[in-house]
Amino acid sequence: MRIDKFLKVSRLIKRRTVANEACDKEHISVNGRTVKASYEVKIGDIIEISFGARKINAKVLDIKEHTGKAEAAGMYEILE
After folding, report:
1. What is the domain range of residue 51?
2. SS3 80
3. Which helix (H) or strand (E) holds 76?
4. Read out DSSP for 6-68?
5. CA torsion 8→12→14→19, rounded to 10°?
6. pTM
7. CATH number for the domain harbouring residue 44
8. What is the rounded CA–CA span in Å between residue 32 and residue 36?
């Protein structure tokens, strides 16, 4: 699954277009490397999202095409 879609489905970012723009502006990195929106997410990847001065690190636990709001938090684990 593409990282922009994963961020939307997992509800780490509300909209896919916003996730796509964040990738274009290099605010998203996986395993320490800046990635494009087309990056294929794998289980075990560490995603770092930069929101200004704030950073979120999340480990990918599961990949699903569609999920409900209650199940979305089970797709990742917040680190730190």
Report:
1. 3-79
2. coil
3. strand 76-79
4. HHHHTTSSS-HHHHHHHHHTT-EEETTEE--TT-B--TT-EEEEEETTEEEEEEE----SS--
5. -60
6. 0.92
7. 3.10.290.10
8. 13
Joined together, the tokens standing for residue 53 give: 């001065």
Spell 41-68 as b/e; 16+ CB within 10 A means b. Answer: beeebebbbeeeeeeeebebeebeeebe
- The count of structural domains within the chain is 1
Model pLDDT for residues 10-66, shown as the tens digit of each residue: 999 999 999 999 999 999 999 999 999 999 999 999 999 998 889 999 999 999 999
Look at residue 71 and give its three-state secondary structure: helix
Distances (CA, A) of 2 to 33, 40, 53: 15, 5, 25
